[in-house]
Amino acid sequence: MRIGGRHYQTIWLNADGWSVEIIDQTRLPHRFETVTLRSCEDAARAILTMQVRGAPLIGVTAAYGLCLGLREDASDEAMDRAIADLARQRPTAVNLRWALEEVRAAVRNLPREGRVEAAYRRTAELCRDDVETCRRIGAHGLDLIRSIAATKQPGVPVNVLTHCNAGWLACVDWGTATSPVYHAHDAGIPVHVWVDETRPRNQGAALTAYELGSHGVPHTIVVDNAGGHLMQSGKVDVCIVGTDRVTANGDVANKIGTYLKALAAEDNAVPFYVALPHSTIDWDLDDGLDIPIEERSADEVLKMPGRLPDGSVVTVEIAAPGSPAGNPAFDVTPARLVTGLLTERGLCPASREGLLSLYPERGR
Length: 364
Ligand code: MRU
What we know:
- The chain is α/β, with parallel strands linked by helices.
- The protein is 38% helix and 19% strand.
- The protein has helices at residues 40-48, 55-72, 76-87, 94-107, 112-149, 179-186, 203-215, 227-232, 258-267, 299-302, 352-358; strands at 2-3, 6-7, 11-13, 20-23, 34-37, 158-162, 191-196, 219-222, 238-241, 245-247, 252-255, 272-275, 281-282, 303-307, 313-317, 330-333, 340-343, 346-348.
- Residues 53-56, 93, 164, 166, 170-171, 176, 203, 242-244, 254-255, 329 line the site of 5-S-methyl-1-O-phosphono-5-thio-D-ribulose.
- 5-S-methyl-1-O-phosphono-5-thio-D-ribulose (MRU) binds next to helix 2 and strand 11.
């Protein structure tokens, strides 16, 4: 996507052919900086500290981390260690495990000498696949937005509400939940996005707003608790969110607060869609309540970073000194609250039957 007139993806291989460049998302929106990953440990740290975040992006970053690890030691034992180390950095998004297993499968039966090249090749494929997958999600989502636009007066925008950042910054390009928005905007359909700020880390206010603004998409940041009121007031036509893991029966894990938006949407008859790539489906899990929910540092709740008028970025305390805080990073929206799952293969009901209608090869 475009930043300052230049096209960027979130992760790329440097000209040396082996080190990996990422956009440091902990610096956005105040500074655009990139960071070079030169080892498996660098990749694991980038995932843990959320320099990279978003389910698809942490998947491909982990895959590159494995490539970097194999450069140092391509033995089976070292590969197992690297995979275990990378996978445990963030437990909820299944894409992380999926991408690592894809690379493992590509190199497992090769002699050590051939593993590094094969791992890089497979990871490059995963990146290309993610871009194309997200583009297709957007093309299907465009039909959805177009059909809503057809019910409105010409020129009146379609109001989309989204939570967290399921944009291009969370993927390699395009995004999942934002891809339909970009496609609609580029097709000349008036669209406006309500951006949930997404406490505690503010992925909405800091990242989604940054990318929508960079692309020229009209948007408004709202506090997380505003969604119910906006829906009640008829100001939301559709909710589109991303996800970190969808179970085989269509339950959806996503950033904490998503469930409350789905409840409000249900109560106000606002359609609630979840956009996802195939790599986010956990076919081994039936019940969303079995999804491991990452518990993050209390500091994320008790403190907040921000920019001062002199341009410096500082972190300040915002809570009563000494009070403890809990920080579950994700919640689970039951399938019954999801209007539809928007995938690269089209739209389906949030159910086992729905998913199998799009991915029949999984039923065998
Ligand atoms: O904690 P984060 O910022 O990694 O959480 C990201 C989300 O919850 C996204 O909505 C999800 O990963 C989907 S990204 C296409």
